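User: Small ask, check this?
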Amino acid sequence: MKILKKILNVILIIFGAALIAVCAELIYNKMYQTDFYDMDETDRGAIEELCLMNKLFDERYGSDEIWNESYNLRKYPFVFTREGDFIHGRTYVVNMDMGRNLFAQSIKMPADYADMKVFRLSRLTPQLFDLSKDVEDNGFIDIFGNRAYRAVYDEQTVRYKGTGSLEEECVKQTFEDAVESVDVPVQKRQFDINSENLGLLGLQYRLIDDMLSAENEDDLKEYITEYVVVREAQTLLDEDFAETVKQIETKYGSEQYVFYKISKKINHNITYFNKEEEDSITFYSAYYYLCTGKYNSNINDYLDYAGYEYTGAALCRIIDDNDLAYDWEHRIDENTSPYDIIKKYCNKYCADIKKKSLDDIKEIYSYDEINELANTLVENS
């Protein structure tokens, strides 16, 4: 009997301690750092990134300055979890009204973000137990009756504003989800490493640089006309691969361009391929680094990871900055490639520009130098 009584006492003590711990956690979540300015710097930074981006979008209509009505970041609920803490780190839900949930505490937001709904969840929130803590498992989840994008963040992904940032992940993943026609499987194929193929790629990079920095409409038309000639010549080398490139430029280039536009709007000024912008390299300098081995990457890894993503973004920017096509974003939504939009503009509006042969263009742009770089890469591959 005494043994049973001792066992019951131990159980009661354990239960009591557990109950106190649960109550302490719930009270802590309800009372600690409930004001935006009292939050941990990294947590506050993660929330502020999303608030700044949300402010660019109208709750109902999205933003014509960023894309069109098909993409509205503000409509997406988000679940942010701080990496590396016990069980689950501090977890916040944004753009989701939690009401009077026992496990959720609203964060008092400053006047600039007063319309933002931000709640911190207790570590004991039952819905969190099924979620992985791994960054690799970031993605869309169903939680509290909402479909939300869940991301694990840390100090580095919040502090950094370029590739690999929390900002980039949220923009690209939601854009890819919203613009369904762009979200098509891309069958990647290997770039055929030979001097002719590489040389034409380098020539395209030179012309993209010139299109991005054209000082007037006549110059732009001339660069576009030359670019189309070079690109069509490369298409003839491998038509299937050329089609794959257009898919990559459409899918990944458009989302990269949207990320670029949002970053510029909130004054993050991410590094971009444009010789007119500070701290930015040109496409041709990237080609030089690639051919001379200054990038620690082979040509196919580079092109798969960034090459055609950035050329697609650059072509989107050329279309957008110069009003080359009305309502062009809808054409991208319908899976028309940015190159096809530029080619159509060329055929329709560049008839007054004297069309040059490929050999003429090669002579203008010192193709021997470009080809020498290509040969360097071929020899070292």
Observations:
- DSSP finds 13 helices and six strands in the chain.
- Residues 82 and 312 are 33 Å apart (CA to CA).
- Residues 2-31 form the longest helix (30 residues).
